[in-house]
C-alpha cells in the first residue's frame, strides 16, 4: 500500500519513544484542505481506530482509514532535514499536482 523509508521509521520511533504514553502506531490519513485540495494528516494513536486498515512495516503499525487508502497507494513517506526545518515528506505518484510545501495535493 505505502512505503515508509528508514529515515521516516527512525523519526516515528523517536517520537513514539518520547511520547510519554503508550502508542500503538501512527495513523496516516488524507482529508480535504490545504492549498491543492487534499492534505496529509499524521497522528499517534493509543490503539487502532475501528475500521482502519493496519499495515505492519518492520515493527511499526500504520493505521489507514478506508477513505484514505486509495490516495495512499504507492506513496512513499520520508523524513527530511533541511535548512528550513525538518518534517515528513510524501512522494505520491497518483497526485496530479501538489503545492510548494509538499503537504497538499490533488
If you had to describe this structure to a student in words, what would you say it looks like?
- With 106 residues, this protein is an alpha/beta fold.
- It has one domain (2-91): Sandwich (Hypothetical Protein Aq_1857, Chain: A).
- It is 18% helix and 43% strand.
- The strands form two sheets. Strands 4-5-2-3-8 form a five-stranded mixed β-sheet.
Strand percentage lies at: 35-45%
Low-confidence sequence ranges:
none
SSE run: EHEEEEHEEE
CATH architecture: Sandwich
Q: How many distinct beta strands?
A: 8
Mean pLDDT: 87
Stated plainly, the CATH topology is called Hypothetical Protein Aq_1857, Chain: A
User: What top-tier CATH class fits best?
Assistant: Mainly Beta
Tell me the name of the CATH homologous superfamily. HesB-like domain
Provide the gyration radius in Å: 13 Å
Outline the biggest β-sheet.
5 strands, mixed
Structural class: alpha/beta
Brief sketch in words of this structure:
The protein has 106 residues and is an alpha/beta fold.
What order do the helices and strands come in, and which of them pair?
Blueprint: E1 2-4, H1 6-17, E2 25-32, E3 38-45, E4 53-57, E5 60-64, H2 66-72, E6 75-82, E7 85-91, E8 104-105
Parallel strand pairs: 1-6, 2-5
Antiparallel strand pairs: 2-3, 3-8, 4-5, 6-7
Amino acid at each position: 500500500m505505502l512505503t515508509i523509508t528508514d529515515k521516516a521509521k527512525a523519526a516515528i520511533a523517536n517520537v513514539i519513544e518520547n511520547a510519554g504514553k503508550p502508542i500503538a502506531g501512527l495513523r496516516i490519513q488524507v482529508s480535504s484542505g490545504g492549498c491543492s485540495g487534499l492534505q496529509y494528516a499524521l497522528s499517534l494513536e493509543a490503539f487502532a481506530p475501528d475500521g482502519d486498515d493496519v499495515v505492519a512495516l518492520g515493527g511499526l503499525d500504520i493505521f489507514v482509514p478506508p477513505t484514505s487508502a486509495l490516495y495512499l497507494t504507492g506513496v512513499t513517506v520520508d523524513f527530511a532535514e533541511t535548512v528550513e526545518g525538518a518534517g515528513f515528506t510524501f512522494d505520491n505518484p497518483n497526485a496530479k499536482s501538489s503545492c510548494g510545501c509538499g503537504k497538499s495535493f490533488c
